[in-house]
Amino acid sequence: MDIAKFLALIDRLCTREFPAQQGRSDLVLAAPGYFVAELETSRGLRVAEAARRARIAEDFHALKESVSRILDHRRGAHQPSWSMLTLRVRAARGETIPQPWSDISLRTDELNLWEPDATGRWVAVGVADRDQADEIHLLAIVTDIDPP
């Protein structure tokens, strides 16, 4: 876990041009209007027992808060933690939720979110740990698409 590398990647994504079509590199899903970066991924949790998974999830949430504290110094304080439950409920009622917010709401329970700065881009950090059959991921989202 290298927070300096995470922050450098977020900084690069804030200045990089969005692609015309969706694509993926090793760590970054890129699409028109957004990037979703997997900053850190657990190993071996797809078949792990619940107690071990819970301990590692706590570590990932602590890492999210460490990254967030530094982003707070760079971008100003983040908004109050944004619960993804509202987006899931709105989608279940038939509302169209734009990407990347739709996918992120299914993967995370909450995000730390910073309003656009001089780059004009929103930045969010969250832990994707909702799918018990998947690894846990620390995600960074950089987008010019306003949160719904």
Question: Which helices and strands occur, and which strands form pairs?
Answer:
Blueprint: H1 3-15, E1 23-24, E2 28-31, E3 34-41, H2 50-75, E4 82-83, H3 85-92, H4 101-107, E5 108-114, E6 122-128, E7 137-143
Helix pairs in contact: 3-4
Question: Can you offer a commentary on this structure?
Answer:
By secondary structure, the protein is an alpha+beta fold. It has one domain. A 7-stranded antiparallel sheet has the order 1-2-3-7-6-5-4, with helices on both faces. A hairpin with a 7-residue loop joins strand 5 and strand 6. Helix 3 packs across helix 4. The model has no long low-confidence stretch (mean pLDDT 94).
Q: Percent range for helical residues? A: 25-40%
Question: What's the total helix number?
Answer: 4
Give a count of the beta strands, DSSP E runs of length 2 or more.
Answer: 7
The strand line-up of the biggest sheet is: 1-2-3-7-6-5-4
Structure keywords:
globular, 4 helices, alpha+beta, 148 residues, 36% helix
